[in-house]
């Protein structure tokens, strides 16, 4: 038997309804906030991520599914969506087409990570990006979208954390301050931190190695090294969030794993998730569009992990319409009527099922039970003769004959009551 690849998973009935519910809410929320859907290929040129995600990131250094295709081209299964969306934005001149491009995308991502609960090698993200707006109001609006999404999914125990990682002007000053503060302690940090110190010292704050923490806790905070413009921007983001009544906690350790972030970074954490507790994360990337060969345009966005949202959603989220109707028929003539009845029930919006094989009434009730039917409609000779159907409520065991046309209204009423 051939099994699925480590770190990938099948989403089966029972769970898939939660995904459908999540995707429907995600689309609704994004569209209410004026974002239009864009779908990009899962495969791109390797250099898009080397340049976009950044050479210094764990993703590019260790986690990409890259290979040479049969035409000799280096290609990569996308590890994140932002570079692809920036590419599409530039390639199709979405700025001209959309004015202020606000876009979202949903799909699978691929990273060669060590799998654990909430961390997979193929996983799915909802990605939201807004291009071209410098005003901090857009930062708050994008965070508001993310917050709304989590609220509408009914996820409890969430926390928004925010930070500012500065810009091209003030970041080097902060990085220098970090290295100066580390001083002789640097060789005592883990190998990853040593590498980060050489490539992007800010990312030392990402370190989870327990022995490193006392040293990292004593390091200066980026918020104290922001230039005037970055400080004003960060103040305004916080003010807007307060105006919107969105609770947040500033966290100086929130630097995010990607190279391109500038100024605002944010994450929403869920307490129910354990070690992999980030539901979503994002921030501003004011240099990325230019880095990828475009004009000097700013951007802000976030990516939410769908697996984690599904895990954190309440137990009963996405449970479909409460009624399941089974039509049981006895005899060929009744089977014909039943086929039309089940079609009409489905047209009217009910989940309805029928027995295809002309089995005994007992076998049909057994199947209805397995399907979790709330109602069974029985059609036999007597019912055929007088235009009725016997309706049995499987939850109470009560049954009664009703005229066939009245079944729909009756079920609608039962649906409303459920
Ligand atoms: P990132 O693109 O790394 O900023 O991650 C954004 C969000 O995607 C995270 O908050 C997670 O919810 C999700 N995510 C990232 N990596 C994985 C993974 N390997 N497995 C599942 N979800 C992930």
Low-confidence stretches: none
Shape estimate = elongated
List cofactors, ions and other ligands.
adenosine monophosphate
CATH-wise, what's the superfamily of the largest domain?
Answer: Bira Bifunctional Protein, Domain 2
Q: Return the CATH topology of the largest domain.
A: BirA Bifunctional Protein, domain 2
User: Per CATH, which architecture of the largest domain?
Assistant: 2-Layer Sandwich
Taken as a percent bin, the fraction of beta residues is: 15-25%
As a whole number of angstroms, the C-alpha radius of gyration is 28 Å
Secondary structure tally, helices:
16
The secondary structure category is alpha+beta
Reading off the top of the CATH hierarchy, the class of the largest domain is best stated as: Alpha Beta
Overall tally of domains: 2
Q: Compute the separation of the termini in Å.
A: 43 Å
What is the residue-mean pLDDT, rounded to a whole number? 94
Structural commentary:
- With about 425 residues, this protein is an alpha+beta fold.
- The protein has 2 domains: about 15-170 and about 225-310, BirA Bifunctional Protein, domain 2 (2-Layer Sandwich), CATH 3.30.930.10; about 325-410, 3-Layer(aba) Sandwich (Rossmann fold), CATH 3.40.50.
- It is about 40% helix and about 20% strand.
- The chain contains 16 helices and 16 strands.
- Strand 9 and strand 10 form a beta hairpin.
- Helix 1 runs antiparallel to helix 6.
- The chain is elongated, with a radius of gyration of 28 Å.
- Adenosine monophosphate binds near residues 118, 123, 257, 304 and 305.
């Amino acid at each position: 038997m051939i099994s699925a690849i480590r770190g990938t998973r099948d989403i089966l009935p029972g769970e898939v309804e939660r995904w459908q519910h999540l995707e429907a809410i995600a689309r609704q929320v994004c569209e209410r906030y004026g974002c239009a859907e864009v779908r990009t290929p899962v495969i791109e040129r390797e250099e898009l991520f080397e340049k976009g995600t950044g050479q210094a990131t764990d993703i590019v250094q260790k986690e990409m599914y890259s290979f040479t295709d049969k035409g000799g081209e280096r290609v990569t299964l996308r590890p994140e969506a932002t570079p692809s969306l920036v590419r599409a934005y530039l390639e199709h001149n979405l700025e001209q087409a959309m004015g202020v491009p606000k876009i979202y995308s949903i799909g699978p991502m691929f990273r060669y990570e060590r799998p654990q609960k909430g961390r997979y090698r193929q996983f799915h993200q909802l990605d939201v990006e807004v291009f071209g707006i410098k005003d901090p109001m857009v930062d708050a609006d994008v965070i508001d979208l993310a917050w709304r999404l989590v609220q509408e999914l009914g996820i409890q125990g969430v926390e928004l954390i925010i930070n500012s990682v500065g810009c091209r002007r003030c970041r080097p000053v902060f990085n220098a301050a970090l290295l100066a503060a580390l001083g002789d302690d640097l060789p005592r940090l883990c190998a990853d931190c040593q590498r980060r110190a050489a490539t992007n010292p800010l990312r030392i704050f990402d370190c989870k190695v327990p022995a490193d923490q006392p040293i990292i806790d004593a390091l200066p905070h980026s918020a104290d090294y922001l230039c005037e413009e970055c400080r004003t921007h960060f103040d305004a983001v916080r003010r807007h969030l307060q105006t919107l009544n969105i609770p947040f906690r500033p966290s100086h350790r929130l630097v995010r794993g990607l190279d391109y972030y500038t100024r605002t970074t944010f994450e929403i954490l869920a307490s129910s998730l354990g070690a992999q507790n980030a539901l979503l994360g994002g921030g501003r990337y004011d240099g990325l569009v230019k880095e990828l060969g475009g004009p000097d345009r700013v951007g802000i966005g976030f990516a939410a992990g769908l697996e984690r949202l599904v895990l954190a959603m309440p137990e009963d989220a996405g449970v479909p319409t409460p009624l399941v109707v089974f039509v049981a028929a006895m005899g060929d003539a009744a089977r014909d009527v039943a086929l039309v009845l089940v079609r009409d029930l489905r047209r009217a919006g009910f989940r309805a099922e029928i027995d295809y094989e002309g089995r005994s009434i007992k076998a049909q009730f057994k199947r209805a039970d397995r399907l979790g039917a709330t109602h069974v409609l029985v059609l036999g000779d007597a019912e055929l003769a007088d235009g009725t159907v016997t309706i049995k409520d499987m939850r109470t065991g009560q049954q009664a004959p009703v005229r066939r046309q009245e079944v729909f209204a009756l079920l609608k009423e039962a649906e409303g009551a459920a």
